[in-house]
Amino acid sequence: MAFLTRINGRESHEPPAPGQCLRTYLRQQGWFGVKKGCDTGDCGACTVHVDGGPVHSCLYPAHRAHGRTVTTVEGLATDGRLHPVQRAFLNAHAFQCGYCTPGFVMTAAALTPTQLRALPESLKGNLCRCTGYRVIEEAVRDSQRLQAAATGPASRDEDASTDAAVVCGIAPFTLDTPAPTGMLHIRLVRSPHRHARITAIDTEAAQATPGVHAVLTHQDAPAVRFSTALQERTSDNPADTRILDDVMRHVGQRVAAVVADSPAAAEAACRRVRVTYDVLPAVTDPDQALQPGAVRVHPGGNLAHRLHTVVGDIELGLSQADAVHTRTYKTHRVQHTALECHATRAWQDEDGRLHVHTTTQAPHLTRRHLCAVLGLRPHQVQVTAARLGGAFGGKQELLTEDIAVLAVLRTGRPVQLEYTRTEELTATTTRHPFHVTVTAGARYDGTLTALKVRVVADTGAYGNHGPAVLQVACAEALSLYRCANIAVDGYSVHTHNVPSGAFRGYGIGQMAFAVESALDELAHTLALDPLTLREHAYLRPGETSPLADGDQPAPTADTGLTDVLRTLRTVRDRRQPPSGAAVDARCLIGQGLAVTAQSTHPSDGHITQVLAQLRPDGDYDLITGPPEFGTRATDLLRHTAATALATGPGRIHIRCADTDLLDHDTGGFASTGATLGTQAVQRACRQLRDQLLALAADRTGADAAACRLEGGVVHCGDRRLPLSELHAGARHGGGPLRAIGRVEPCPGPSPLAVNAHWFRIAVHPETGALTILDSVHVADAGTVLNEASCNGQIHGAIAQGIGTTLWENLSAEPGGRITTQDLRSYTIPQLADIPDIELHFCRPTTPDRGPKPLGEGPFNPIAPALANALRDATGIRFTTLPLRADMVWAALHQHRGGRL
């Protein structure tokens, strides 16, 4: 019987391949709203309707769609009108990167009234890493109100922002376009050993596998060493990585690459590659790696970076203290878990020019790296990026692009390399684990007399981002503290563990867990309110931290810090304790807080560039460097441009992440969209506005000062000149109307961006389970330009912080193989895990304070605030993350002769 299925109202007769799942079949048919996040039925990004019911299409055999009706998110809208769920998601701004949105929309559209009353349970099959879920919950509930109303099409402004495209599933992500003709697929052979030297590789059987075009090994790779970290200053990271190496330094390192007609053929050939290893001793503990005689990870030794700073006299400060606390705190290895996996497509055009379409936060730096490693010139390579399905720093690395381009140069064919979820969890990068020993002294009035910190950061097998993370952790994380005597010793250390890398917070969260826990212990010892101690221990407005981050300006406190502390006290003190009916009487109740800060000054050398130009129709193009990946920076830049050009956001058309459009841009990370990005847009748009006014004045004979730009028209007295006419005249008169805004950080004050969090928790003594009863966040956001976007950023960071603190953990066997290989074993927060969060913005009283970064800072106080609440509830100081229920229970069990 001939295969027949109806997809979004269209018949499809193409039979699926044997064993093919419905997800890959639908994408093969061009329905790219069906996303891949896991391939194990855990994330829900691939949800579609089969005969009206939701299914995870990655688990649904495609052949079972025979004779059935399949609806994807693209088919949910009817007659150009958004489905009520799509309209509700649009109204609520219920997404950030948007990669999970089609799956949530499809799940929500099929919910029954009974399921709607139990949303945490009903949505447990859908994961979101960006939003923290509350806006999604709001949208789903609001969709029922909209069911009875006509929703209508998206407005022009909504279309311009691409939000409507996201909820309709047509906003393209990296692999959401038809594959180039003749495209090959890459799969990788990975090391089973932590430390080994390859003595022989036999690829003959793999080469003979049907469909295989090439098998690449270290003998085919350039000898050039580089860092996978994408940062403006290449000198910030050790050049210690090869595309393919003959020395393995961690389990999961790339050994060989197979290029074949299909992923299945490439995987079959990978199993036929025979590798002979000389297995070598390994070092996995960073403290041991620093010891004399330790096994060397690299020939130059295990110390990737050293930092030493002393201010004042530590011993004197300790002698002046009424209380001293000393303890070592340890953080763990966690993964970004962006729902879109790393992926690259690369090909050559007929002129031999390389095109690389990839999941990168920094297209220009990716091009620079590829040229340096493969001996190419910049004009020979174009790097582009679509919208990214989350990043969190994990896509500030060169992880797939280098091997893809090497395969193109070897085969002459287009290629694609897409990581699996298992590869994401076991072979990309992670947050740096820290071992931090804190010695802190304070007086009875809360004055901090001494702060001594020794931090050992495990940068793993390679040094990407290691020096910079250590630098930021030791400077910015300690920048809050008003102390005359500070000593910092920092070590970024190589081990035979999977490489660490850039991750939201960039080391501040790890350091804050240690130091804010230590301050809490001092408060307990001195019988002080923990907030009172902090009010004495932090900088005053106008004071500058004695710790500077290398060549960066020293962080300076402004009124945002005092506003945060004042607001936190007001909100905390008015919260009522939970009623007995709301909490099990056996539970232990506690509260805790933490305050953290980051500099608003971007990393040294960061370049942001924006081009604004007038279009023939009188609208504007705004060309920017980085892609959109969930920060909603493109919306912020669009609204900034619209304000500067006195027009509506719908007239601003963003084009981004294409190295052919701008000569250079460092990329999107370190929350630069809210700071450097807006400055660059303002510069470009003001220049363009001045050009338009001058041209209009020249045309009309009016004084340029008397001309006014509004909407699509320049008003010069009684004359109205449409911008389309100005564009036509300029085109005939010598060139387009355009302007470039370029911003680089300048020396000067670097105000702190402050975030504070307060929790009230309940701990069940029989299980160790921790329940969050109250959650309050106070953010010093500067000028809030888009409150909905800021809310989403903060909620998402808090959710990620809760998961990191309480259960997320990359577990490994003694031999180094990571055992958390899917989203069922590496569990990220679900809707049911996230409490209601009371959010407060501290807004500036002066108009000259612009926006402050919010993408990273709200993550940082979560771990110490929860740890401090747990200390208050149990009387036990937990010094190691994560704060798993079994660890809490074991500690409580040992203390049953005390409080319990």
TrEMBL record:
UniProt domain 2Fe-2S ferredoxin-type: residue ranges: 1-76
Molecular function in Gene Ontology: 2 iron, 2 sulfur cluster binding; iron ion binding; oxidoreductase activity
InterPro entries in the cross-refs: 2Fe-2S-bd (IPR002888), 2Fe-2S-bd_dom_sf (IPR036884), 2Fe-2S_ferredoxin-like_sf (IPR036010), 2Fe-2S_ferredoxin-type (IPR001041), 2Fe2S_fd_BS (IPR006058), Ald_Oxase/Xan_DH_a/b (IPR000674), Ald_Oxase/Xan_DH_a/b_sf (IPR036856), Ald_Oxase/xanthine_DH-like (IPR016208)
Protein name: Putative dehydrogenase
Tagged with keyword Calcium: no
Family as reported in the entry's similarity comment: Belongs to the xanthine dehydrogenase family.
Keywords: Iron, Metal-binding, Oxidoreductase
Coiled coil residues, start to end: none
Gene3D superfamilies assigned: 3.10.20.30, [2Fe-2S]-binding domain (1.10.150.120), Aldehyde oxidase/xanthine dehydrogenase, a/b hammerhead (3.90.1170.50), Aldehyde oxidase/xanthine dehydrogenase, molybdopterin binding domain (3.30.365.10)
PROSITE patterns: 2FE2S_FER_1, 2FE2S_FER_2
A Pfam family recorded for this sequence: MoCoBD_1
Domain of life: Bacteria
